[in-house]
Write a structure and sequence with these properties.
The complex is a heterodimer. By secondary structure, chain A is of the alpha+beta class. Helices cover 35% and strands 30% of the residues of chain A. In chain A, β4 (119-125) and β5 form a beta hairpin. The chains are: A alpha+beta, B alpha/beta. Chains A and B meet through α1, α2 and α4 of A and α2 and α3 of B.
Chain lengths: 139, 124
């Protein structure tokens, strides 16, 4: 029986933590059996949600874990939860528009992450923070 | 970790050795801006072969570097973007439009040779 590290928490405080988060995500995705192309897509999505924390909330955390579903005869995948207690997003629909940025960014981060993953959910409350939950299923 | 920058003839080669944090990328931008002047370089190659991900920030910084160095009179070519990394960039809608790219260092040097030679013929 293989023992696997199937859950990892990364505290995001500074931009160097973005690299740590995506490296851990890459390692976990590989362990979970994702192929090279998908591993890179997952790492890129983690990079974007981690950057969103650094840019807008300064600090937060990213929890990555294995996830299973009973749908379609059982699927395995990876779940990434990025949460912060920052200012929150006033207009989530606007933030998810491609090319929209409140800073000088490209405005591709969150919508881009959504495209890279299979499932993407964002919950935000002004003054309380933002939680992004995203999943990718193994093909 | 700072990116080593080598001088090769009239060109500078920035060879990225490990994954880069945002501040490493900004440092690379600043040191290239400076060294193009110091070494009077006509062309710059940035080798990104080892990068595991080129996300929105990295793309923006690479674009900034290329446009900034153009204003300083040097051509930039990005070499070594891996297939999976390129695929993720396309999925993210990220482009390096208007910036030279090449498969590897050898192709990058050939690209710069043709660009800078053409300028010489034009009399620039």
């Amino acid at each position: 029986m293989l023992s696997m590290e199937t859950e990892t928490l990364t505290v995001i405080n500074a931009s160097v933590d973005i690299v740590t988060a995506r490296q851990r995500g890459r390692a976990l995705a590989l362990e979970l059996g994702f192929n090279g192309a998908d591993v890179t897509l997952i790492a890129a999505a983690i990079s974007e949600v981690a950057r969103n924390i650094v840019d807008h909330a300064q600090k937060g955390e990213i929890l990555m874990s294995a996830v299973n579903s009973d749908l379609e005869g059982g699927r395995n995948g990876i779940q990434i939860i990025a949460r912060d207690e920052g200012p929150g997003i006033r207009d989530v629909a606007q933030a998810m528009q491609y090319g929209y940025s409140t800073r000088k960014g490209l405005g591709v981060g969150l919508p881009g992450a959504k495209w890279l993953m299979d499932e993407f959910d964002i919950a935000s409350e002004m003054g309380r923070g933002t939680t992004i939950t995203m999943k990718k299923w193994r093909r | 970790m700072p990116v080593p920058i080598l001088k090769q003839g009239g060109y500078l080669i920035a060879s990225i050795q490990s994954v880069l944090s945002d501040s490493d990328l900004v440092e690379l931008r600043d040191s290239l801006g400076e060294r193009v002047g110091t070494y009077r370089a006509r062309g710059v190659i940035i080798d990104v072969t080892v990068l595991d991900v080129i996300d929105s920030f990295a793309t923006r910084t690479l674009r900034t570097i290329a446009h900034m160095l153009k204003l300083r009179g040097a051509e930039t070519v990005i070499v070594g973007i891996q297939p999976d990394v390129a695929f993720a960039m396309v999925q993210l809608g990220l482009t390096l439009e208007g910036i030279g790219t090449a498969l590897d260092l050898e192709e990058g040097l050939a690209h710069l040779d043709s660009r800078t030679k053409r300028h010489a013929v034009d009399g620039n």
